Amino acid sequence: MGREREVPKQTISYTVEQLVAVNPYNPDILPDLENYVNEQVSSQTYSLDANLCLLRLYQFEPERMSTNIVARILVKALMAMPAPDFGLCLFLIPERVQMEEQFKTLIVLSHYLETARFRQFWDEAAKNRHILEVVPGFEQAIQDYAIHVLSLTYQKVPRAVLAEAINIEGLSLDKFLEHQVANCGWALEKGHGRGQLIVLPRNEFNQPELKKNTADSIPLEHITRIFPILG
Predict the structure, then answer these.
(1) Which of 2, 39, 197, 207 satisfies CB 3.0 to 4.6 Å to 202 for a cystine?
(2) Contact indicator for 226, 150 with CB cutoff of 8 Å
(3) pLDDT, tens digit, for every residue of 171-191?
């Protein structure tokens, strides 16, 4: 009498998002979430939900915390501004960890961005490239945020103000402006050097007469925090 053939067990493969949704407090998924952070870095993608889930698991398993992974999560959160992701992540990180030098640096950088102090931000970032350069796309993401902030305040932005905000000068700035004029609706007024004015696309914030779409509006407290600094 022959042996019955064993039926192989079916392996079910879940995505990280599914693991987070089904069992977010299971410490067994911690390695998957850490690998997913590294995948977000290498592929220049982003998942706040997965990263918050990992930080919560670290609270229950503090001995398994990887400070390198936490730092990468915070850098990715900075890149998501003006979304409040950095604060959401920081809330889940123990104070003793926040006191480490790399995290104190990231907190300072976050403060500079929130208050639109771009010159101080870029100066501080230049001193801490070893923390930031491990995450591709960081500089461009912050430049996009800086342009977003300027567009809330200015109809026409002086070239010097733009150069300081995005940390680009000279020929590199000329090429950047050419790209923005060709692809993003910017315009240049006649003028040369630092006195040149750049005309930004109209929106409901820099053109008050435009009808405001409340569904897409930015909270008033964000605007009032920025205007006194840039005014």
Answers:
(1) 207
(2) no
(3) 999 999 999 999 999 999 976
